[in-house]
Structure formats: structure tokens, C-alpha cells
Amino acid sequence: MLTLLGKNTPMCDRLDRRSFLRIGGLAMGGLTLPQLLRAEQAAGVNGNGKGVIMIFLPGGPPHQDMWDIKTDAPAEIRGEFNPIQTKVPGIEICEQFPQLASMADKLTFIRTMVGAGGAHYAFQCLTGQHNRNQPPGGWPALGSVLSKVYGPKDPAVPAYVGLSPKTRHAPWGDNGQPGYLGVAHAPFTPNGDGASDLVLNGISSDRLASRKQVLKAFDRFRTQIDASGMMEGQDSFNQQAFGILTSSKLADALDLENESQQIRDRYGYGEDKLQSDGSTRLLTNFLKARRLIEAGVRCVSLSFSRWDWHGGNFKRGRQDMPMLDQAVSALVEDMENRGMLDDVTVVVWGEFGRTPKINSKAGRDHWPRVSCALLAGGGMKHGQVIGKTNRLGEEAIERPVHFQEVFATLYKSVGINVDHVTLDDLQGRPRFLVDQNKAQPIPELFG
Question: What does the alpha-carbon distance between residue 244 and residue 257 come to, in Å, rounded to a whole number?
């Protein structure tokens, strides 16, 4: 349940929030829709239609070979890449990212990410939490929170979509879990099991249009859900299934043939091949993410390649970094041209950093003590570097930034005040979205 004005406030006649909103201006229980929205705003929630694109780099990208080149370090630490100047005087990044360098005024480079759990998973980058000592049901991903708090913008479009493919190392292919919020708020996965939900599977549109037949089908669906203990999601399943099947909006957003050749070429194409036990190098997913947000999705998660470079760090960097450079720069440029950049926040990161010392296989090993992240959009103050590591890139010596702080920032960018909003877990206990002792929105981004 969403906490409003410091209380758990059920809607009149036991209606859920989205059912209440559909009533429109009809007065119920003394509240009209405008009054409800004002109450939400006072409670720290403002359903303003903003969105988040979460780009996960499976395996842990090398922070000292991307945004924090250590020119003064010894050769066995410094590595093979050189820094280049960016559009912002005084900020240098790796030479493999010239397109991002040219738009650094629209980006924030975080060089001092701390608090990594140290495990090979997407979980922390999707929830902000460790996967240890979770509440019953588990921590929900950010996209699931947005689905719960705001619901879908359009019944034909899910609130949360995950584009990451299934990977041999399964935790890298995680698109996000709904946790204690329930399966109704799980991401829709058009690249996986959700692909079959885009078609009618042998049912004619005439039959689907028959209200009687639809209700009978949903009754059978309810029975199946009851048997598997997933009661909470039934209304959302019904709405979403019918909306997707009776509208082409989601399918159109995923169909890149509807995009101009010029835009497709700008993003690039990559390759639809899993990189060992990691993800694909599909640059088209970045374009799909923009199209999905434009169609009404609130959060899109995706993964790119495999960054667990215990060997051949610089060879792999010369392959993957220019591709990431092209896709992320195209995404930022495209959203700016479409007037979307202030409303959509982009975050790019992995689960941890890499060792300062290069090993005997020309690789870098796991280093949870510090890592990096890239932020863009969201109406924030960009064109800056946050944090400083020591000479060898071993640890943060100025302005460490915790994963929880980034999540507090992401929530603020979509209109949620983390000091006020709580969601009930499976035991009815209200849970804040971030650890109140660790996390506030990053002040440098909102000055």
C-alpha cells in the first residue's frame, strides 16, 4: 500500500489507487481526482510522467580505464588507454569515448561509487540493495516501485520493461524483480517470455473483442493464479493483457522499422550474440529503450556485453567501449532532440570496479571498494565529475557516493520524495525506498 500523508490510506470502497484514478473527477469519499493528486504531492509523490533507463554493464567495468584514467600511476596500474579532453574544461575521460567526451556538458561522471556487495549480479544496480537479509518477498527493483506507485501511463503499455536477454550466468540477465510488491509489478520482457504476450495465440480479434469471452478467459486465468499464490496481481494482469492484445502501441514501439534509417544508423546495430556467459552487444536495445519510454513505459532496464575482463582487458575495451560510446551518446542526443532529456534519467554502471594492478593476463580482477557510474538527463545539473579516487584508483578519497544515494537521486528525478514515501512489505511493514541513514539525493546534481 502507498503511504500518503504519513498514513496508510486505503481508497474508499476498497478500491485500489489506479481504480480510483480511473473514476476521474467523480467525487468519492469526499475526494475528487485533483484533490487526490494534491494529496499525493504533499506526500512526496508527483506522477509527472518521467522515466528512467537503466543500463547495466555485466561483470564490472574497469573504472580506471573509463572515466578515471590514472596518468600518474605506474605502468602496471595505469594501463594502455590515454585520456582525452571533453567539452567541459578540466574533465578528461578515456580516449575510447570521443562521442561522450563531446557532450560531457550533458553528463555526470561519478568516479567514487562505494557500497558494492561484491557479487556478480545485476541486483544492486536494479534495486540499490544487497541481496542478503532481504525482507519477505525480497527488495523490489526501481521499475517495480514506479509501477506500484504510479501504475501504467497507458493500459496498452507496461510501466516497466526489461530488454536484457537470458544469460548463462543468470544473475547478469536479471531485468529486475518485483520483490514484496508482487508479480503485478514485474518487468515485461519482450525479448524473453513476454514475446508471446504480444500476439493473440490463436484467438481471433473478434473473439477477443467479445466481452463475455474475455471475462470467461480471465476467470480461468484467475483460477490459475489463485492456485499458484499470485492473487495480488490479477487485476493488473487482466488490464495489461487486454491492453497489449487490443493495441499495437507496445509492438509498434519495439518495431525499429518504424524508425528512420538515419536514427537507426546513429545508434548502430551491434550483434545479437551472447558474449560468453554475459549479455549481447545489441546497440538497437538503446533505441528500443528510447522508443519504449516515448510510448509510455516508466522504466526500461537493459544490459550490454560482458565486462568481467580477468584477461585481455584492453583488447576487450577497444571492442566494447566504442560501441557503448556510440549507443549512449546516440541515446542522449536523440532524447535531447525530442525534448525528452529533462524528463528521462539515464544511468550506466556495473556491479563493481576492477583491481588497480593489471594481472599477468593483461586483465583486471574484482574490486568492490570503488567503481564508477555515468548519469544523464533527468533535469539535473550535469557537466561535472563527482568524487576523487587516490593516485592508484584504489579507493575514494573525496566524496564517496553510495549506490543508495544514486537510487535516492533516481527516485527524486521521477518525482518521488524518499523521505516521505513508503511501501508495505508482505508483513504489512512500511518500508522506505532507500536506507534513510545512508541516502539522500546527490546534492551536486540539484544545485
Answer: 19
Domain count, the chain: 2
Q: How far apart are CA 104 and CA 382, in angstroms?
A: 8
Residue 209 lies in a domain: no
The pTM of this model reads 0.85
Q: Is residue 8 located within the same domain as residue 88?
A: no
CB 373: neighbour CB atoms within 10 A? Answer: 24
For 180-203, letters b (16+ CB in 10 Å) and e give bbbbbbbbbbbbbebeebeeeeee
SS3 at position 61: coil
- Same domain flag for 318 and 266: yes
Strands (E), 9-94: 51-56, 83-85, 92-94
Over residues 369-421, the pLDDT tens digits come to: 999 999 999 999 999 999 999 999 999 999 999 999 999 999 999 999 999 99
Burial class (CB in 10 A: 0-12, 13-18, 19+), 447: exposed
Residues 32 and 76 in one domain: no
